[in-house]
Design goal:
The chain is α/β, with parallel strands linked by helices. Among the domains are: about 190 residues, FAD/NAD(P)-binding domain (3-Layer(bba) Sandwich), CATH 3.50.50.60; about 80 residues, no CATH class. It contains 12 helices and 17 strands. It starts with 7 loop residues before the first strand and ends in a 5-residue tail after the last helix. Bound molecules: flavin-adenine dinucleotide (FAD). The site of flavin-adenine dinucleotide has 39 residues, from helix 1, strand 3, strand 11, strand 15 and helix 6.
């Protein structure tokens, strides 16, 4: 059998499953996508802010029809302190439903089809759904944070699911081109205001108690207006194995998310390209190795930075935030929407940070939660 004759089933028609479908179609395959929802792109579980790299760096650039607004920077606040960083066209605000639908164009997607089980029959797989069985030579789980494919394939990892909630609110007060980010705890729990650009703002929170934090944020900011839509979802932070025999996971199912800002669309789509290459070359195991090579170091470093910030006391968190505020011009120069370690390394290389680093290290070494967390992370580093 030629490689292209192999039957591939992708579970999940989110942006990553659909983009993988497009890559495989380009390579001569006829992938079957199965999707439990009745419509692609809905319900929305996303703030819809993406870097310009999504339109510049992809092998198959997505259509720009989903773009609603251009963002030129952010105002970042913690307690009573804030600073602004600006960069031309740093990001776009998209209509996520339109984005996902445009990526699905021309693909074979079975809607209302829920994946329920997986078993091996000879060299192939039986994929069970509420609409009957499918068979495949290769099975891909692009089925989001709670991936059933990941669980049934026995792909082990160390994943924590975080919660996000967002309201779309009719409001003319925030017409600008800046995103407003207010940290609850720098840099992992935060609220935001995103101007959609059409008299609607997106106000959201990622935290342990997003409903309470979002309501408080709206009250504190005095945000008024009719809520026209509510979106909520889970964000998987951590790491996991991503291949087992002829089964692989990609996107949120594979924790391919930026650990600090929780953005997952860029990493997920770039990861789909690595997976498509491994399929094209007839060696799925390369996917794990090549992914580690491209993203492993960045994700590990940002997971560590996140772990550190999560365990620091409030005083040290404030000190680090104020250091960043004093060096906002450096962040402006070093900042890369998709690659956050460049900012951390750049700031750490500045001799003026040494005092802040010393105090942070002292705080960490006195902190049993950090020591325990670090040992746990090292124990769970199941692949390198
Ligand atoms: C509140 C919030 C805000 C966010 N904001 C941003 C942002 O601004 N920018 C950004 O880059 N990222 C953001 N993210 C993350 C981003 O939404 C995800 O990284 C992205 O959706 C991942 O795409 P995916 O295709 O891997 O998974 P998903 O988009 O989750 O798609 C998975 C698909 O699989 C389907 N599925 C699941 N189980 C089954 C099953 N058993 N059978 C059949 N189908 C199934 C689902 O219905 C879904 O359609 C945010 C997330 C949240 C929760």
């Amino acid at each position: 059998m030629t490689l292209q004759k192999r039957k591939i089933v992708i579970v999940g028609a989110g942006p990553v499953g659909c983009y993988l479908g497009q890559l495989l179609k380009r390579d001569g395959y006829s992938p079957q996508i199965i999707e439990e929802d009745s419509e692609i792109g809905r319900p929305i579980r996303c703030a819809g802010i993406i870097g310009q790299g999504i339109f510049k760096d992809m092998e198959i650039p997505p259509s720009k029809e989903s773009i609603l607004n251009e963002i030129q920077g952010a105002e970042i606040s913690y307690k009573d302190s804030s600073f602004v960083i600006k960069r031309n066209q740093v990001a776009f605000i998209i209509d996520r439903a339109v984005f996902d639908q445009s990526l699905s164009r021309g693909l074979d997607v079975a809607l209302n089809t829920k994946f329920t089980g997986l078993s091996r029959i000879g060299g192939r797989y039986k994929i069970e759904t509420n609409k009957g069985d499918f068979t495949a030579d290769i099975v891909i789980g692009a089925d989001g944070p709670n991936s059933k494919v990941r669980k049934l394939a026995g792909l082990r990892g160390n994943i924590k699911l975080h919660k996000g909630l967002q309201y779309r609110i009719k409001n003319e007060q925030y017409g600008g081109e800046l995103v407003d980010v207010q940290f609850i705890h720098p840099f992992h729990e935060f609220c935001w205001v995103i101007p959609e650009g059409n008299g609607i703002i997106r106000v959201g929170a990622i935290s342990q108690r997003p409903h309470k934090d979002l309501e408080n944020f709206i009250k504190e900011k005095g945000i008024k207006g009719e809520i026209v839509e509510k979106n909520g979802g889970l964000i998987p932070i951590g790491s996991t194995a991503i291949v087992s025999e002829n089964i692989a996971v990609v996107g949120d199912a594979a924790c391919q998310i930026k650990p600090i800002t929780s953005g997952g669309i860029y990493y997920g789509m770039k990861s789909a390209e690595i997976l498509a290459k491994a399929i094209r070359n007839g060696n799925l195991a390369d996917y794990q190795k090549d992914w580690r090579e491209k993203f492993g170091q960045e994700v590990d470093f940002c997971l560590l930075a996140r772990g550190v910030m999560e365990t620091l006391n409030n005083g040290t968190q404030e000190r680090i935030f104020n250091y960043m505020k004093d060096n906002a011009h450096l962040i402006e120069q070093l900042g890369d929407f998709e690659n956050h370690s460049s900012v951390i390394w750049g700031l750490a290389a500045n001799p003026k940070t040494y005092q802040t680093i010393g105090i942070t290290a002292f705080d960490l070494l006195r902190n049993p939660k950090f020591i325990k967390g670090t040992i746990n992370r090292l124990k769970h580093r199941i692949f390198k």
